[in-house]
């Protein structure tokens, strides 16, 4: 496991968490866009 982490520095918990947060933000924005379309 340690070897994997050293070979793949991008796969750190922090970056993985940031990517997940980005996905959440995208989902929220898509939901808001859909709600705006329904209102108009």
UniProtKB/TrEMBL annotation:
Domain of life from the UniProt record: Eukaryota
Chain segments carrying region Disordered: 1-23
Compositional bias per record (Polar residues), positions renumbered to this chain: 1-11
Name listed for the protein in its UniProt record: 3206_t:CDS:1
């Amino acid at each position: 496991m340690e070897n994997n982490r050293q070979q793949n520095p991008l796969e750190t918990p922090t970056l993985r968490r940031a990517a997940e947060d980005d996905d959440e933000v995208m989902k929220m924005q898509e939901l808001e866009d859909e709600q705006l379309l329904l209102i108009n």
